Amino acid sequence: MLRTVAVAQERPWLALGAVFALTLLFGFVTQAAGSLYLRLSGDPVYDMYRTTLTYTSALVGDAILLPLVNVFITAQLWEWRRRPHPSEVALSLLGGAALTVGVHLYQAANGILNWTMTKPYEWTQFGYVHAGFMFAELSLVLFFWGQVGLVARDQPRAILSRRIATVALCSLVFMRLLLGDYGYF
Fold first, then answer.
1. Which of 14, 20, 40, 150 is the most exposed place for a label (fewest CB within 10 A)?
2. String of b and e for 84-96 (b: at least 16 CB within 10 Å)?
């Protein structure tokens, strides 16, 4: 573990590349591979429901925007090197869990079916994988914005950053794509 930290301190681009790659892997590649698997295996779920590769929010958002968001979040947190209180982490995890559950219950209650939920309140394996990623991503984003607020309280000029602006912009574009995919725009 200490060697990993030492390598990351010497080569921050390596750590940021790993953040991008891991986000891409868990946020997009696993879902895209699942979609491809369903198609190649002739699973009827592929023909009956939308899959990852049919969503613009997945192709652009999960594959590009979210990995970039995580890179900029990581770089900004790295620059601040602020030691969070355990309650800050716990609140972020709790908020991430609440949002993830809330979104999935809304999806089920409104019959928004796709390949991750083929019947209301019945998730597929891919649905659980996506929910796990969504929980992790939302928790990180909530943690980041909490840190922005705490830093702003103590050093207001410290939040004047291109990284923070980029996180906000990428997040807004992702939300627009996501809501568009579900017919809200």
1. 40
2. eeeebeebbbebb
User: What's the rounded Cα separation, in Å, for the pair 136 and 29?
Assistant: 16
- What pTM does this model have? 0.90
- For 65, 117, 150, 157, 176, the CA distances from 72, given in Å and listed in that order, are 11, 32, 18, 18, 20
Q: Do you know the residue count of the chain?
A: 185
Sign of CA dihedral 117, 121, 122, 128: positive
> Distance (Å, rounded) from C-alpha 71 to C-alpha 107?
29
What end-to-end distance do the CA atoms of the chain give, in Å? 46
| Alpha carbon separation from 120 to 52, 98, 100, 115 (Å, rounded) | 18, 19, 16, 12
Q: Yes or no: say if 161 and 168 are a contact pair by the CB < 8 Å rule.
A: no
Tens place of pLDDT per residue across the chain (185 aa)? 556 555 556 778 899 999 999 999 999 999 999 999 999 999 999 999 998 999 999 999 999 999 999 999 999 999 999 999 999 999 999 999 999 999 999 999 999 999 999 999 999 999 999 999 999 999 999 999 999 999 999 999 999 999 999 999 999 999 999 999 998 88
Distance CA 117, CA 149 (A): 36
